[in-house]
Amino acid sequence: MSTITLIISPYHTGLHAHRVGKGPHHILSQNLLAQLTSLGLNIETYEIPRVDDFEGEIGRSFEVMRRTSLAVSEAVEKGNWPLVLSGNCMASVAVACGLEHAQAQAQGQKKGGRGKLGFIYFDSHDDLDSPDVNENGYFDAMGLSMLRGESWKLLMNTVPGYDPESPFDYRSNKNRFLYVGLRDQSELQRERVVEAGMDSIWGGNLNPPDGLRG
């Protein structure tokens, strides 16, 4: 019988149950566990401990990512399927690093598993901002630029499974990444997605910026 490790991360900007951080507990309140077990699945649950003692939005958010990465890695090493309920898009960073960490552990490596992951990213936002081009001050918009080694490099090196030497470089592995539903973006953000070479299915009536292909 298959086992799912349900990893609950009820955080937004590192604050517990703040705004969209209430989402994971709300989903659980809708009988999620009962519905999963009715399908014949074994469910183990783990909730990311509070990070109140860490400094500021950035410090708290990175600690949530570190803990989520380890939780994902531990689930995979047990042969379980990690399912993450998160209030924040930064979970994508942690899940990717956790999967790479598990692969590295299995191969006896210290760093990540050399970019074996593939992504299908359903989102109206691209999360590809870096601090230098961010227009809205939203830290949560930078996750994929972190994975690509473009931003927050020192702190990213503290996330288990992250390897700056290329495993998340989708410029050379663009066939492993597909955006689906992109629509809520500025012109600059749309141009960055296309210039990064990521395959995209644009949402609504959007087309790639003039002169560029996605």
TrEMBL record:
PROSITE patterns membership = ARGINASE_2
Q: Which GO terms describe its cellular component?
A: cytosol; nucleus
What's in the keyword line of the UniProt record? Hydrolase, Manganese, Metal-binding
Say which domain of life the source belongs to. Eukaryota
A Pfam family recorded for this sequence: Arginase
Q: Name one GO molecular function term.
A: manganese ion binding
Give yes or no: UniProt keyword Hydrolase: yes
Family (UniProt): Belongs to the arginase family.
Identify this protein by name: Arginase
**Which species is this UniProt entry from?**
Aspergillus cristatus (Chinese Fuzhuan brick tea-fermentation fungus)
